[in-house]
Amino acid sequence: MAITKGTDGVVKIVASALDDGSETTAAVGQVRSFDFSQTADTIEKTVMGDDERQYMPSLTTATLSVEAYFDAADTTHSTLTPNATIDWELSPQGLSAGKTISGEGIVTSRTVTAAFDGAVEATFEIQVHGTISETSN
Fold it and tell me: Which of 11, 12, 56, 135 could connect to 25 by a Cys-Cys bridge, CB 3.0–4.6 Å?
């Protein structure tokens, strides 16, 4: 497996619903970094007489965080507002290598920050729900 540069990564969201009912995706502009995290809960099932704790798998959850330079003219930035339900695609190694991870989620926060000595930045937090798919590019 080849190691790739982080600069090749792409984050896309459904940008708009067209008049014919179809949808189009657009890359989130000015992305600096992203973080996709999946976790699984466990349920303890230890009983008296066991010498070690016993567990079984339970529910899973995932989150997606995207950091970007804020661009008020970028329609994806204005789409990523709290409570918005979005479809998303994440291609960590770019569109021509590796895999694309995709799913649906709810935007839980949007933070825009500015400092006198830096560029205006935005962070978008998405709570993933439903099925997560992985396809080869």
Answer: 12
Say if residues 136 and 114 touch (Cβ distance below 8 Å). no
Let me know if 28 is exposed, middle or buried by CB neighbors in 10 A (0-12, 13-18, 19+): buried
CA atoms within 13 A on the CB side of 17: 4
User: Exposed e or buried b for every residue in 85-95, given b needs 16+ CB within 10 A?
Assistant: ebebbbbbbee
- 6-136 in CATH: which number? 2.40.30.200
> What pLDDT is attached to residue 94?
81
Residue ranges of the domains in the chain?
6-136
DSSP 60-113: EEEEEEEEEE--TT-HHHHH--TT-EEEEEEETT-TTSSEEEEEEEEEEEEEEE
